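Objective 1.3, modelling of assemblies. Example input:
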Amino acid sequence: MGPGNEDYFEPDYAGGEPQSRHDSIRPVVGAAFGVLGAVIVALGFAVWPSLGFQSSTLVLLVGGGITVMAMRRPLPPESERRQWKQWLPWLSVGLAVALWELALLLLGNNDSWPPLSLLAAPVDTLGLGRFTLALGWLAAGAWLIRRSRR
Amino acid sequence: MTSRHLAEFGFVVIGLTACAFQIRAISARRRGVAKEIAPVTMGEAVTSAMTTRAGKLVILGWWWWLGWHFLAR
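Predicted structure (tokens):
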């Protein structure tokens, strides 16, 4: 292996240019397999209902896999850390969702006072709605893996 | 206005607020506001939270729970 070999690449090329034709194709092939895998998993969710063994196992396995992948990546650099005043608006949005959800649970947790899960029930039915929801969840997971290393 | 409409209205208000925060952060970046004081996008806030292992675990755990809540139970 050396600079004269077309497969030569630098061991640490995070953020750098690919060093060979294979390296330039690899991310495209990886992304294609990722999309294919996501579609297959989402199809599984589209045909398997909630409260079932298959859907629970799929969430546990896929969620666990993506979590392990994200945790194994290095932490984003310190330079990406922002002051608390800068991310406070987003924390307040998260808290607002949690508090509103809690209020609806305490007020009734029924059709009169529906929390987010009941509002999403018409979408979360077998078929296209559940397929889209699953694809969105997987896309969010992939986005979190990318965010793990900037 | 029924109680159901009120419940939906609450989520719409929170969603619109989030959109406003995102637009404000993008527009601040375009205006060239210094990175140290500019409002951040949701993605930047998530990345900031993920600069520690604990923050990373919390964010990933929350994402995992969302999948469990909507797709498994």
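Chain A touches chain B through 56 residues (CB under 8 Å).
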